[in-house]
Amino acid sequence: MEYLTEMQQRVILALYYSGNEKVTFRKLIELTKSSTSPVKNAIDSLEEKGLVEEIEETESFPKRRYIKLTEKGKKVAEKLKELYTLIESTS
């Protein structure tokens, strides 16, 4: 069984609650209230699990990299949301 770290959960939920289909790396750092290295490590790990994907837009200058949830990632985000709602309602 694989577990998600706290930072991985924060990245998934930040992407889910951002309301955007895709988010820049810089914006994701801001949303998770973290720094570059932990967010990058979480993204790499989540990408390996098939929960997020990176998209590079080359038409614009400078090039922009975006991160978005995959369909699997959206399902995990929904489950995390349910879990946190359940935890909050029982406290």
Summarize the structure.
It holds the Pfam family HxlR. It is built from 4 helices and 3 strands, in the order αβααββα. It is α+β, with helices and mostly antiparallel strands and 91 residues long.
Morphology: elongated
Biggest sheet layout: 3 strands, antiparallel
Report how far the terminal alpha carbons are from each other: 27 Å
Helix/strand structural class? alpha+beta
Supply the CATH superfamily name: Winged helix-like DNA-binding domain superfamily/Winged helix DNA-binding domain
| Count of discrete structural domains | 1
- List segments where confidence is low: pLDDT < 50 over at least 5 consecutive residues: none
- Strand percentage lies at 15-25%
Give the topology string: H per helix, E per strand: HEHHEEH
CATH architecture: Orthogonal Bundle
Radius of gyration: 14 Å
SSE layout:
Blueprint: H1 6-17, E1 23-24, H2 25-32, H3 36-48, E2 52-57, E3 64-69, H4 71-90
Antiparallel strand pairs: 1-3, 2-3
Helix pairs in contact: 1-4
Domain HTH marR-type: 1-91
Pfam families: HxlR (PF01638)
Organism: Sulfurisphaera tokodaii (strain DSM 16993 / JCM 10545 / NBRC 100140 / 7) (Sulfolobus tokodaii)
Protein architecture, described:
The protein has 91 residues and is an alpha+beta fold. It has a single domain, classed as Arc Repressor Mutant, subunit A, CATH 1.10.10. It has 4 helices and 3 strands; from the N terminus they run αβααββα. Strands 1-3-2 form a 3-stranded antiparallel β-sheet. A hairpin with a 6-residue loop joins β2 and β3 (64-69). α1 packs across α4. The chain is elongated and about 50 Å long. The termini are far apart. The mean pLDDT is 91.
